[in-house]
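quick q for whoever's on today - can somebody do inverse folding on this one?? i tried earlier but teh output was garbage lol. tokens:
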């Protein structure tokens, strides 16, 4: 570079630095300015030999990120300094985290360390989905350190998205996909709506450039007409607002390209058929005491002139979103028969909507309850507590919680609780407290007993009934939808499985001893392979519940004595008879070893369809073909919509199950001589001794003779045999038979 070019670049860097101080949302004290200056000097030194792909000096990137943090997000000097330093440790050999801590203190060092960890994660090459999900999970763990890590990372990602032109197309697509997958939902959840919108639009620009450019051009073409329409609409209500002496501004806001694309896709319409391509925002001045009153007064002014759509009223002033967002949204029929969304916000609400939590903290009073962001982070940390959670499941669950709509329900004492839309009474129980969830026996909604799977509606009052003897069972996973509840239930079931597994291990040791086999690591691995299981715990658990019985173990012992011959025979017979579908079926039955159909959960023959290749755990359905029997498709298979709309009568409900978790209803008939305490003896054996779930009881006594029927739920035949033997031993019982 020539001396003149260097001078010009230095002047641009100085200008960018001064601009940063000027646009800061918070008022900077002299100490704040000194801190930012010190961070700027270290950043200049750390990146002095670096250039970006575009050719410009690297320091422009941390300056731009710091500007987003200061202006768009509105964070304090600590965050601005951390943003300036966010790449220094990673990119410069001259600085370590220890150096940053000595120069700037623990808080800034913790934030920079968190950002450095995230950067090193994204440098992995050729990520597969599960590795990528694991990396996102690790990134979210940095919330434990300081939430500002994630917020600065979002600012960093925004600037990277704004300056991606000089990258390779495959790199652009990868970064854009990642942005849409996790960063835009995170920005949404933290209340950074403007940044979320820009991230989504930029994401679409690189993942589907044709669609992006088509919508972008059409918005540009219709801008003049749109501006004119907003002007006409505003003029009608301005006079009325002026008469009421409101201080206000009215702005027209075009919907984002991404949201227009989403509407076109979801509703199957063209650009011209999307009716609400913009919203009108009325921002009014008010003190906090009159905010709510003024909002509804403006609502009445707007609806005096334009007819509202009653099902499109959203009151987020009385019940703010968990992101902190407050506003009144109404959709009205405007001029020329067009629907227009009107957003009514005070200046304070508008700041919170645009700056997210920075503004929320600015207005926060000491008397306020726990902040929503803090409570959200606490819930998230609970989900992260379980290290065994599958990373892909975790990220999917996390994404659902980021974007989920909210409902508001009441506790019996009238306290308001926010839950995601689709939450059940069991989710509510875990939302109250983990122990309440674990001990849930039933639920009352609006005074009536309801199933635990009951989906809650806005305004429901929910009362959870608990019992010391209640505990989670596998069915609860079908009833719970929130990550918190599902995580806790899975942990409890795992503990239960471990306990049964420990008993099963001792049973297996005794049974193998009778077969002259020692239970050690070698024989355990052989048994796991023999029964086509995944882990030793699966083996011990199946022995514990009786799914693997004496006969099966004798067969294993026999096969073991002639292992070589069995191996050769197996090889030959497999080669001769195995088909592609059988191979696929064998591969997919590692955990979910059974596919069942219909409400009765029948086992039927089936084939895996080639168009979507479903695997266990996928949501699936069966399709009855003309020549090939039942074929299994994923619910999101490319052909699913066509099959379901054209051949609905051939669709069969289907789901994967782990056969060890399947339960069957059995009726037992008992007769004998009646005496005091007999019923208690029977129920004690069934529930306490055998841990079998009773569904129905019916006992009768006539002339000293006793007869009764019990409906029980069991996992297999072995358990029912044991139960019958124990019941026969009760004093006075004559006959016990399975109906």
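ok took a stab at it. sequence:
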């Amino acid at each position: 570079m020539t001396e003149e070019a260097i001078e010009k670049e230095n002047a641009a860097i100085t200008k960018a630095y001064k601009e940063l101080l000027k646009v800061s949302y918070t008022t900077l004290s002299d100490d704040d300015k000194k801190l930012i200056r010190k961070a700027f000097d270290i950043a200049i030194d750390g990146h002095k030999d670096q250039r970006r792909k575009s050719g410009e000096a690297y320091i422009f990137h941390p300056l731009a990120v710091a500007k987003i943090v200061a202006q768009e997000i509105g964070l304090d000097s600590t965050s601005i300094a951390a943003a300036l330093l966010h790449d220094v440790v990673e990119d410069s050999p001259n600085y370590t985290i220890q150096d940053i801590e000595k120069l700037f203190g623990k808080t800034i060092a913790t934030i920079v360390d968190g950002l450095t960890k995230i950067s090193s994660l994204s440098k992995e090459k050729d990520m597969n989905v599960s590795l990528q999900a694991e990396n996102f999970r690790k990134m979210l763990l940095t919330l434990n350190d300081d939430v500002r890590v994630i917020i600065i990372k979002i600012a960093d990602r925004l600037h990277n998205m704004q300056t991606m032109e000089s990258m390779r197309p495959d790199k652009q697509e990868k970064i854009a996909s990642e942005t849409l997958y996790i960063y835009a939902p995170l920005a949404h959840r933290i209340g950074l709506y403007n940044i979320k919108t820009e991230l989504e639009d930029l994401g679409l620009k690189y993942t589907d450039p044709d669609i992006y450019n088509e919508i972008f051009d059409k918005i540009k073409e219709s801008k003049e007409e749109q501006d004119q329409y907003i002007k006409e609409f505003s003029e009608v209500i301005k006079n009325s607002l002026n008469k009421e002496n409101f201080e206000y501004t009215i702005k027209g806001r075009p919907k984002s390209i991404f949201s227009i694309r989403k509407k076109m896709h979801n509703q199957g319409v063209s650009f011209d058929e999307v009716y609400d391509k913009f919203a009108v925002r009325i921002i009014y001045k008010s003190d906090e005491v009159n905010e709510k009153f003024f909002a509804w007064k403006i609502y009445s002014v707007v609806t005096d002139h334009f007819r509202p759509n009653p099902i499109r009223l959203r009151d987020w002033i009385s019940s703010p979103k968990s992101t902190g967002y407050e506003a009144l949204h109404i959709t009205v029929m405007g001029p020329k028969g067009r629907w227009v969304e009107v957003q009514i916000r005070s200046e304070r609400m508008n700041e919170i909507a645009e700056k997210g939590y920075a503004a929320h903290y600015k207005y926060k009073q000491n008397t306020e309850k726990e902040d929503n962001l803090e409570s959200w982070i606490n819930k998230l940390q609970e989900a992260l507590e379980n290290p065994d959670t599958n990373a892909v499941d975790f990220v999917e669950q996390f994404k659902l919680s980021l974007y989920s709509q909210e409902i508001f329900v009441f506790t019996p004492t009238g306290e308001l609780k926010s839950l995601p839309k689709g939450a059940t009474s069991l989710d509510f129980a875990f939302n109250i407290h983990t122990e309440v969830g674990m001990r849930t026996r039933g639920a009352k909604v609006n005074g009536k007993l309801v199933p635990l799977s009951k989906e809650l509606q806005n305004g429901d009052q929910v009362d959870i009934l608990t019992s010391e003897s209640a505990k989670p069972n596998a069915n609860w996973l079908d009833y719970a939808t929130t990550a918190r509840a599902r995580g806790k239930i899975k942990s409890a079931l795992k503990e239960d499985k471990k306990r049964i597994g420990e008993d099963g291990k001792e049973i297996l040791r005794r049974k193998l001893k009778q077969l002259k086999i020692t239970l050690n690591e070698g024989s355990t691995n052989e048994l796991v392979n023999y029964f086509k299981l995944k882990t030793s715990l699966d083996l011990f658990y199946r022995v514990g519940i009786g799914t693997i019985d004496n006969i099966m173990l004798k067969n294993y012992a026999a096969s073991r004595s002639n292992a070589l011959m069995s191996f050769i025979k197996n090889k030959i017979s497999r080669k001769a008879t195995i088909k592609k579908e059988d191979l696929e079926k064998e591969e997919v039955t590692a955990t979910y070893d059974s596919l069942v159909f219909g409400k009765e959960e029948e086992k039927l023959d089936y084939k895996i369809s080639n168009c979507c290749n479903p695997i266990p755990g996928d949501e699936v359905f069966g399709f009855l073909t003309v020549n090939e029997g039942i074929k299994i498709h994923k619910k999101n298979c490319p052909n699913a919509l066509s099959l379901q709309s054209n051949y609905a009568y051939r669709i069969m409900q289907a789901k994967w199950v782990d056969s060890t978790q399947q339960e069957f209803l059995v009726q037992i008939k008992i007769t004998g001589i009646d005496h005091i305490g007999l019923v208690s003896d029977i129920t004690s054996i069934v529930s306490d001794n055998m841990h079998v779930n009773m569904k129905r009881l019916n006992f009768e006594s006539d002339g000293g003779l006793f007869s009764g029927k019990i409906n029980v739920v069991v996992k297999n035949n072995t358990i029912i045999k044991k139960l019958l033997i124990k019941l026969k031993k009760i004093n006075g019982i004559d006959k016990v038979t399975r109906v």
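fwiw The chain is about 55% helix and 15% strand. also Confidence is low (pLDDT under 50) at residues 123-130, 365-370, 575-590. so keep that in mind when u check it
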